[in-house]
Amino acid sequence: MEATKSKVNVDFNYYRKEIDSELKLTEKMVDEAIIKHGRLPDAVFDLRAVLYGLAMEVAGKARAGDLVAMYELIKPKEGESSVEIASGTGFLTVKLIEWTNNTVFAVDPSEKQLQILKGICPQAITIVSNPEDQEIFDYIPVGQIDIVTSFGGIHHNLHQRKTFENVAKMLRPGGRFCAADVADDTILAEHFDKVVSKKCLTGHNRGAWLSEKRLHELCDGLPLEIIKAEIKPLTWDFESEAEMVLFFKGLHAYDLPDQEIVKDLRNTLGCKYENGVYKLNWPMLFFEIIRKR
User: Whole-angstrom Cα distance, residue 53 to residue 88?
Assistant: First the structure.
């Protein structure tokens, strides 16, 4: 599987209006939730679902490298069943169905994001739940799943140990837990801690950043064996700064001036212009864990 980057015609004026309008609506919903409940709702991505979907539309090819890396990690086979944790609006889900031509259970606490996913990919079996909840086994068969996966969602989970217990319960003997997430003590963790947590309209709550040590802690005492864990220096690729700005306005719910967004990205993550493409550093910890036989 090769990453491709072709020129596309995107109406940035349209997306800017749509994203700016949705940012105002999101800000209003945040204010209303705080006034009514004194805090944000547990499923904050319900507030950002439309923004997230718009981000993926405006820069649909930016994350092609993520999919290549996940394909190489998972090595999917025809007919394999899979569960995706924190599936969101379906960035990886759609490809899992394509790669395996089989069932994908998409688990996410955001009902609105899963509604978007279902519209894009009606074949997915969507489950509105946190991955640590036992209720997911009302839908997911115990001990019969070939692949459990996630991209960038585990750090949002406040109960990571319980999630890993559920992963062990889902997988058949020899089944694989193949995922990628933000690694501790990296520029990406710094980006979220120092920028996103302060400037995203809904903040950025998280359980814990991952590391090889953290993975060993999460697997300790479970029938799970870590096969590999490595940080890969991925980049997200954009055809223009305008595309990059609109993408992050949607992805991170940034109601900020364009130049502030660009400055933050350059200062924390680093971005270089190469062969007509703006390449933004986005290093992730990739790991493979197997269910012991």
Answer: 9
- Domain range summary for the chain, segments of one domain joined by +: 12-291
- DSSP class of residue 182 equals P
Sign of CA dihedral 84, 44, 22, 65: negative
Q: Give alpha helix (H) positions in the chain.
A: 12-37, 45-58, 64-74, 93-100, 111-120, 160-170, 187-191, 197-199, 212-219, 241-251, 258-268
pLDDT tens for 91-148 read 999 999 999 999 899 999 999 999 999 999 999 999 999 999 999 999 999 999 999 9
On whether the CB atoms of residues 287 and 69 are closer than 8 A, the answer is no
At residue 288, the 3 state secondary structure works out as strand
pLDDT in tens, 48-64: 899 999 999 999 899 99
Integer distance in angstroms from the first to the last C-alpha of the chain? Answer: 30
Q: Domain 12-291's class?
A: alpha beta
The amino acid that residue 160 corresponds to is Q
Sequence-ordered list of residues with C-beta below 8 angstroms from that of 292, at least 6 positions apart, any chain: 173, 223, 224, 225
Number of residues assigned to the chain: 293
For the record, the structure tokens of 69 come out as 């890396």
Q: What pTM, to 2 d.p., does this model score? A: 0.91
Give percent helix, percent strand, percent coil of the chain, each to the nearest 5. Answer: 45, 20, 35
Partners of residue 238 on adjacent β-strands: 278
Cβ 81 vs Cβ 87: under 8 Å: no
Rounded Cα distance between 110 and 67, Å, is 22
